[in-house]
Each structure stands twice: as C-alpha cells, then as structure tokens.
C-alpha cells in the first residue's frame, strides 16, 4: 500500500459538487439574483477603508451575535456564528456525533448532512421521503428514537416542501439526541419554528445569510440553541472562524433588513409566476415549493438531455444525474424576472424541439 490511505469511509464518500459550467443565466445554486443593496455596499466600503485587516477579527463574533440575538428575541448565549452553515454542521457533528453515534437524514435532502456525518465518524441512518417528498413520519419517529442527531431541512432542499410545525414538534420530541432544523430558506416560506426552542431543549435552528441576504460569497451562517448546546459547540469552533469583513457585512445587512424583505416578496411572487407558467408545459410537473427554487419532475423527457439543451441556450439549472431519487428531476432557482423569462423561453424551445 502507498502512503496516502484515507479512512475507508472517506474513500467511499462522494464529494459535494457545486455546479461548474458557466452561463449568462445561472439558476443552479439557489443564490439571490440581486447583489447587496446600495446602502449596504456603501457601508461595507466604509468599513473596509477603516478596518485593520492585519489584525485578527473578533474571535467571539460578539457584535454580530448580539445583533442576531436582538433580531430573534434570544440572548447572545443562544447564538453561534460560522463560516457558512456548513461549518456549524461540522461543529455539531464534532461535538455531538462521532464514533458509536448516529445521525438521521431524510433523502433526498441537502447532501452535506451525510458528508459531514461520515467525515466525523458519525454513522448515517436514512429514512427516504415519500413519492411526494414529504417525510414518512411513522418511519421517522421510529428512527429518531435511536438517533443522536437528526437533520431536517425545512423547507427542504432540493424539493422545496415544508413540514408542518406539529410534525416537526413530534419528531424533535421523539429524538434521542439533538434535532437540527435547517431553516436556510425560511424567509421565502414566511415561516419559522424558532419559538419551539422554549419547549424543546434539544432543538437547534440553523440559518444562513447566503440566500435571502444576498451574501453567498461571504459565507455567514448562524445557529440558535440552548446556551448549554452553544457552550459545547464553542469548544470545537476553530479560532477566528468568522473573518472581519464578513462580520461587518452581516451587521450592515441586518441594519437594512426592510430592503431585503422587499426583495424576498419579489422572489416569492416570481416563484409563483414561474410555477404557473411551467404548469402549461407538457411533460413537466412542478412540485410545491416554499423556497426560492422549484423542483421539476419530468415525464417522457430525459432530465440530463434537457439540462444540456438548456445549457446550450446559455441557461444553467441544477442537474441531479447520478441520484436515482431525482433522476427525472431538475431544480431551477428563482432569479430576476429577466432571468426567469430567459429560462422559460429556453425550456419551451428545448421541449418543442424534442
């Protein structure tokens, strides 16, 4: 054997793959179609000019945590900030997962739950979703009773559906360990279950600035939980994990929240407009979505071939080739009105040619 010998479970793991092809219309990664608002960009420029970048950032991310605590009606001890939500998922698995512990996921869902679990030596148990992509509650409750960690994306990525608060409460209550509720897309659903933290000591609510707040390029995520949970996560958090620029940008974004709320309403309206338009396209079933994307299930149309034909027309959507649960599906992010119109036109042309 050579000297490069990864752990067997890592060798078998498939790396997370972000869309790589380029196009004029990019609707593949659930990004916000708009850059940060002008007032936020101006404030960031002023911050950049006055920040000593040769010094380490605030190690405790205190000012941002205070602002997030105020916004969410909790204490600063309830909040931890990470370099994107993914880093916080790593912290959760390091602190509460590991050898002889298991996480529970509900595929198809965000693939990083499994990747991070396996990377940290945490066994993965999966309860597949039903045909309509809802959680099979009976099977989920049974599996949760033995799970050290449960990961639920709500609304779910990549399907967009939302589990009701009663179902989430039942599932969290049944979980042996911690229940991680990933609300990365909650702003587009107009729903959050954060209030359940008052009654469920094992509930962790994960959020991100990447989607509704147009900060995918700055990587800022945060998690709200009981102080005793946050204290354990702080032990495995890397030092200076949130850089000075991202901390400042997130603080500036929070000051201008009404501007983002207006954009969120626009994206939701566009989601419904695109959904209605797709309902008229033969061979395309549009799954209900409460997020900033739509999942399309195709009938009599090859998903990979359609993805390729859209790319030839300079439109990039998300292709799920290799995932048998989504083999007939494509996911399209809701972009600007012009981008959405370009997608609809390209889709119509591609299907008509077939």
Describe the protein.
The chain is α/β, with parallel strands linked by helices and 354 residues long. It has two domains: 8-30 and 258-353, Aspartate Aminotransferase, domain 1 (Alpha-Beta Complex); 51-256, 3-Layer(aba) Sandwich (Aspartate Aminotransferase, domain 2). Helices cover 40% and strands 15% of the residues. The chain has 13 helices and twelve strands. The chain has a seven-stranded mixed beta sheet, with helices on both faces. A five-stranded mixed beta sheet has the order 1-11-12-10-9. Strand 5 (149-153), helix 7 (165-174) and strand 6 (178-182) form a beta-alpha-beta unit. It is globular.
Poorly predicted runs: none
CATH architecture of the largest domain: 3-Layer(aba) Sandwich
CATH homology superfamily of the largest domain: Type I PLP-dependent aspartate aminotransferase-like (Major domain)
Query: How are helices and strands ordered from N to C?
Result: HEHHEHEHEHEHEHEEHHHEEHEEH
Q: How many domain modules? A: 2
Cα radius of gyration in angstroms? 21 Å
Mean pLDDT: 95
Structure class = alpha/beta
